[in-house]
Amino acid sequence: MSKEQDRTSRxxxxxxxxxxxxxxxxxxxxxxxxxALTGQMAQMAGAxxxxxxxxxxxxxxxxxxxxxxxxNAYPSAGGxxxxxxxxxxxxxxxxxxxxxxxxxxxxxxxFLARTFGSYTMQLFGGDEGGRMVPMLGVSLILAAFxxxxxxxxxxxxxxxxxxxxxxxxxxxxxxxxxxxxDSLAVDFSSSGETGVVGNFLGATALGILxxxxxxxxxxxxxxxxxxxxxxxRAIVISIAACVVLYTLVGFAVASNxxxxxxxxxxxxxxxAAARPALGDYGLWFTVAIAMMATAGGILASIFAVSRxxxxxxxxxxxxxxxxxxxxxxxxxxxxxxxxxxxxxxxFFDLSRIAALGIIFYLIMDISxxxxxxxYLHQDIKATRWVPVVSIVLDLTILGGFVWVKLNTDPxxxxxxxxxMIVIAVAEQMYLKSSARRKAMERDEPHEHQH
Length: 450
Prior knowledge:
It is a single chain. By secondary structure, the chain is mostly helical. The protein has a single domain (about 5-10, about 15-440), classed as Amino acid/polyamine transporter I. It is about 80% helix and about 0% strand. The protein has helices at about 5-10, 20-45, 50-75, 80-90, 90-120, 130-150, 150-180, 195-210, 215-220, 225-255, 260-265, 270-315, 330-345, 350-375, 385-410, 410-430, 435-440. Helix 3 (about 50-75) crosses helix 15. It is globular.
């Protein structure tokens, strides 16, 4: 199959509407964040965790400015990979940060898969042996892989259907939970030692993981109708919708469960909160919504991540091997993404998956803002103070999160550092390799046909 055929089979211009794009964005955001992070954030921030969601929303609102400005100027299917390339060119900074984003997105998909398993097992009284959660997660990733092979119309249709059901369901959960609660007075007095600033910053970092799905919208750039306007609009609408939903759910959970109960049930705290308020029917309803939300999230995530890796491959920023597979590069990157997701889902628990994802994402995010500040602000007509604020907020939150993890789980910080060193060294070796040089020379005639 020639390269031209590869391209047309992959990127269908104008195939995503504004509502469809919003559904893909909220699909990723609402999937992971609200169902699995509520308990983890409560463990860090104590009773202040609903406010950590709001703090995360403020940080992400500043952060989204850079993405909106670049996507309005250069809409592209490569999304963040292309943005980094515009800022840093053919250098290590581009490849390294693009791969951090890629891995943080694969990590998010494993996070969704394990959350799906945790909630599903609540229908059967939990997962005592600890084997069923990863098995269910692995099955979900494989199902999403099959739907992704069927093409854009299927992905958009299924994601939109699931999106409408789950947003409606979460709204019902939040409103009924708040209405049935004994009182809306969330007990902020019990924060005790968790009132430490570092812990609140750590919880805010986890909250950002619940919003970062907005970046997947940028990866659909060349496939969105009127992308110069609609990519930015989709980002704003997605973040606003999630702020409302997360705040509502945070208060519903906090007013139905004690802090100790939220922490104890942290992998499935929404299901636990539904039981005192609504009994078994509430539990079944919440589990059904969680299963749909995480399934929709994985579907949208695999769609976006495989496109990003395909673009990095075309930009000659990562090596590519067909391993004897037929079809286009994007089909191959889909397979790599799914295999990596399966490994993480099978062997890592939820809190460690989340920690790796947030560290990788924040470092990449800082690089995007620095690129805007240093190289792109004139080209994309960006106000310079906004990326400056974003960098300061990101560094503050990353510092708080690292501090918490140093005291509670230093192993995961070690894994993150080693992974980043390996990515940087491997990327630098590839950029200097003769294989890349040959690939660049071979593709010179096609270079301007993007």
